Amino acid sequence: MKQFSNLYIFCFSSALVLLVAAALSFTSLSLADKQQENIEIERQQNILAALGVTSTPADVLAKYPQYIRQGIVIKADGSTVSGETPEKIDLKKENAKPVNERLLPVYLAEKDGKSFVVIPVRGAGLWGPIWGNVAVESDMNTVYGVNFDHKGETPGLGAEINTPQFENQFQNKKLFDGSNKFVSVKVEKTGTYTPDSHTVDAISGGTITSKGLEAMMHHSLEPYQTYFSQHKSN
């Protein structure tokens, strides 16, 4: 058997590592556009889902403009921020800022002749980030629909936040009480839950995720109070 020197083995191994690294880099770069397209497709599907519109990766790009009229970015005082688009907003970074410094994404939507706004939300579950979209009717108070998702919540427990059984509870819930005070939507655990216009039933066994979602709703939607007040229908 032919013997190779240590120097030869080292040079050969280094060349092989460099070759594999170059191949992986090329593959990653060549797929970057496709990965970004997939992210955009998923974003649009989730926004439409909050409006109760079912879509697939094959038809979402055609359906999306049928329902979403415009995307804008606002500040907490209700003013529109020029030169910004909602799909570029990093909610993780914005949520870490003081309320009056945040960039707040808004999607203006229409469905069946009615107007809606869709607000992206983001928070923390038990094992990682949770996020979603909340569609609000033109009274800027009534929740029309929601769509939630997560990174790593426990299957059968916290992961149930993105099931129809849980999401459907949010329909027709109110963000403001009778005194026009912002109260968002509370998530109460089974046993203490009493049905009303501001409360949904928590996921059994998923208390931490449920309370994280409640905090996400309040923290994410509270900065929109002025915008809601300025644009609500009579």
Question: How would you describe this structure to a colleague?
Answer:
With 234 residues, the chain is of the alpha+beta class. The strands form 2 sheets. The protein has a 5-stranded antiparallel sheet with strand order 1-2-3-4-5. The chain has a two-stranded parallel ribbon with strand order 6-7. The protein is globular and about 85 Å long. The chain has one domain. Helix 1 packs across helix 2. The N and C termini lie far apart (89 Å). The longest helix has 45 residues. The protein has 6 helices and 7 strands, in the order H-H-E-H-E-E-E-E-H-E-E-H-H. Strand 3 and strand 4 form a beta hairpin.
Keywords:
single chain; 234 residues; alpha+beta; two-stranded parallel ribbon; 7 strands; 36% helix
